[in-house]
Amino acid sequence: MQRFFLLLFSMKHSIIVGFGLAGLAFAEQLKRSNLSFSIIDSGRGGSSQIAAGIYNPTVLKRFSLAWNADVFHQYAMPFYSDLESKLKTQIVYPAQIHKIFNKRSEHNEWISASDTKKLAPFLDPKIHSNHDDSINATLGYGNVMSSGRVATNHLINSYKSFLNSDEFIEEEFDFKKLKYSDSSITYKDIQAKHIVFCEGFKMINNPFFKNLPLVGSKGEILIIKAPKLKSKAILKGPIFITPIGGDLYWAGATFERNDKTLRCTPKGREWVLNRIHKMISTEIEVIEHITQIRPTVQDRRPLLGTHPAYKNIHLLNGLGSRGVLAAPLLSEWLLDYIEGKSMLNSEVDISRFESYLRQTD
Ligand SMILES: Cc1cc2nc3c(=O)[nH]c(=O)nc-3n(C[C@H](O)[C@H](O)[C@H](O)COP(=O)(O)OP(=O)(O)OC[C@H]3O[C@@H](n4cnc5c(N)ncnc54)[C@H](O)[C@@H]3O)c2cc1C
User: The pTM is what?
Assistant: First the structure.
């Protein structure tokens, strides 16, 4: 009896596997609800560590709103601002995005889009002329408003140092050490009610969820030094060029569906360099070339929910190329669902792929 109470007392609410934006947002939801957790992360980094961290509710190829982006944006901005207060550090860098026009016909498309109810808060209707010689924008640009950048890598490192020693364990998760029943999860000496997998693209090795259609798309990026480029705005042409402090800019990214290795390629580097030179005319120096794989899904919707055969094994994944805006609210949806407070939106619920989950291999 005494052992039972001891066990109950030391039992965590959740084990979280993976500490990118998804794992961090879920941990923060648990903290807000006074629920305990242990995070297990390999320390090898993932997509969140190399992302530009741009928050942009619009799709600038089509001048449309990204899926649910206005709702995600409304929730995410106070979420990150609360984290800034809690961690006592700057995470959010508001900045306009200058969408450089490619064709004259885009001017009218931009003006019409900015006149729609959903896009009006984000697209400034004015067509701006470019007066900066270092930027190639003869047809001018349009301004995206309420946009900017979250310093994702800094956020992850700051949050990690804010955690207690029993809340973060740096190791590769060993599936052979996982024991589960309907009432509890045991991993080595950790007992929990639930386990939530937030592994990004590495989910493809997870025995419970590997059959879900996580396609993945590799992104190669360059960190460049461009002392004569003085843009404070995020530039959007064929790629994003994002100021990240000093004379440094994040430039990218490629979008590759076939190669799923974490190797940087000469082809990727050339592809990004070509586009940088199309967008700016100043000298640059390449400081770093990095790559990761975005956790993109076949139907372009997140993957949230509970395994149909194991009621305390859960998933928060499929953030695709827009994890910054989506992770905060999705993590709340998942926690509310686990706690029986609400149903999941059917567009994100993994039950839409139930037949994949029931496959034995
Ligand atoms: C080049 C590029 C640019 C991007 N730019 C943007 C952007 O500007 N804005 C935006 O919103 N999104 C952007 N994204 C997308 C964004 O990075 C993702 O949506 C988001 O970071 C995914 O977060 P995640 O936590 O699901 O996965 P990840 O960030 O990949 O985190 C998963 C974590 O789990 C760990 N892990 C996995 N398996 C195990 C295991 N078995 N044991 C222990 N640890 C494990 C990994 O090491 C990693 O730390 C970009 C992505 C790329 C690749």
Answer: 0.96
